[in-house]
Amino acid sequence: MINSLDMINKKTEWFRHDRFGMFIHWGIYSIPGKGEWYRSHQKVSIEDYQPYFDAFNPTQYNPKEWAKLAKAAGMKYMVLTAKHHDGFCLFDSKYTDYKVTNTPIGRDLVAEYVDAVRSEGLKVGLYFSLIDWHHKDYPKYKDLNHPMRDNEDYKDEEIDFENYLDYMHHQVEEIVTNYGQIDILWFDYSYEEMVGEKWRATELIKMVRKHQPNVIIDNRLETSGEGFGSIVTDAINLYSGDFVSPEQIVPHEGIRNYKGEFIPWELCITMNNNWAYNPNDHLYKPAKVLIRKLIECVSKNGNMILNVGPDALGNIPQDSIAILDTFATWMNQHQEAIYGCGYADLVKPEWGYYTRNNNTIYAHIFEQPIGPIYLPGLKETDIKRMSFLHDAGEVKISKSWNTNAFKDLCFAQYGDVDHFTYPLPNDIA
Ligand code: JFZ
């Protein structure tokens, strides 16, 4: 088996076209409501974490509703935490008792999610944690992230890490064989010496690809949210993944390999400052900021996966729904400037971003201009037609600015005056 950028580009064609997805962080940590790292941050023992397992009963769980919200917002794929670092499985694994079917809800919630997402016509993704704070053979005292990292009781622990890897591989196999076609597999994550073959990554990927030849995989068998991995080098590992996964940061000029070729990437981003439910975190980014982040990603040939953290009943918080609704309105009018679009290969305009789909350039104007809008990188003769996306109204090339000192530059003019009237419609195309 070999791996190459050509193969990666072919496999990720739909993904690069679709550009926008929904991330869902949800599990028994949604009960304490302090984020999915709660057990580690507060150094909670397995015993003290058990009440959340015993209480997990999300009676309002309605993945069809989640999928409808995502779809309306213009998202084309979803990724749900089948298992996060706490080791709790939202799916019915036969290799552990630490799973959703043994909680009060008693159902395989991944199975229901997969059906719901598919029935809405969205692509199905699952997140799977390589890290497992529950398994007896995962390093504890010696691991910088483990809830028991400072607990002397575990100082001389003897673990059989190979046994953990067998377990982890078996669970991944369940995920890729029990739920039909999986479109995205989102492993998380590598750190320090816990990277690559430490996870028996080649073996793992061969197994996954055997069952799911078309699945798109992130790069975190090789790295965390901070690295690129071998995908940008001239020696791409089998387990390089198919896209880079920068976390809470937009790579300033996209991501390219050693030859300068663009590499598929996906920004993962939270709406507030938590992945999982935290009712005390009210620091939501305004919807407008998040929409602009999506535009920025696309302008740099990337995707964006926007996160929600449903509560312990299964409801997506109202603040998140409000943001999704704003996306829905915007995407309704402007999706053409997102789907199938990417880097424009033009000078970046000071008023916002260009995105591009073949010969169509989309100008995303973030800042109210004075006078006409300068279109850097374009000449009058390059332009056949200009119009707004929201109403198909005509936009003209400004003629008066063509006769003076600015005459070799290209300006867009809207309406019958030589400047853009206020309020500015969102975009011109
Ligand atoms: C990881 C998870 O730990 C987190 O809970 C969430 O699921 C996110 C999408 O992915 O977050 C990380 C992973 C690695 C680093 C930081 C956050 N890192 O190495 O700095």
TrEMBL record:
Enzyme Commission number(s) from the entry: 3.2.1.51
Alphabetic keyword roster: Glycosidase, Hydrolase, Signal
An individual GO BP term: fucose metabolic process
Transmembrane parts of this sequence: none
Any single Gene Ontology cellular-component annotation: lysosome
UniProt-listed InterPro entries: FUC_metazoa-typ, GH, Glyco_hydro_29, Glyco_hydro_29_N, Glyco_hydro_b
Pfam families hit by this protein: Alpha_L_fucos
Family: Belongs to the glycosyl hydrolase 29 family.
Protein's name in the database: alpha-L-fucosidase
